[in-house]
Design goal:
By secondary structure, this protein is an all-alpha fold. Helix content is 79%, strand content 0%. It contains six helices and no strands. α1 (2-24) packs antiparallel against α2 (29-46) and α3 runs parallel beside α5 (92-115). The longest helix is centred in the last third of the chain and has 24 residues, at 92-115. The radius of gyration is 15 Å and the shape is globular. The relative contact order is 0.15.
Amino acid sequence: MEEKIVKVLILLLLAINSAVDWRKREISLISLEVFGVIGIGLNLWLGYQSFMEAAGGAGIGLVLLAAAFFTKEAIGFGDGLLICVTGIYLGFWENMSLLFMGALCCGLILSIGVLAGRVKMAARVPLIPFLLLAFIGRMIL
């Protein structure tokens, strides 16, 4: 039961922020706060993972925040914050898998776009829609 709740909440978080990221090139900080608090509360209430697992998952987002700082936002701060929140729900390995699969989807789709002449090499694209695609793919498979 708790696994379904977690999946639905992550799906909602990614869907909301995919739409915002696609249209405005930003992430809804309010949704991150709300889902972050819900994730912590759910973790405490259901106890489906240890504190260290949740902290490890959020730590991946902290690494992305540091990368955003040092690369002058080659990857956005919002992306790092969103990965922190998904890490609260998923833990270290599942969150790492989500990030890897999202980056892989992004790379494959954009490579096809570049080869087809529809995307320029220097184009900045939102990451969250690819994370959503990866999460849906993981749910199906």
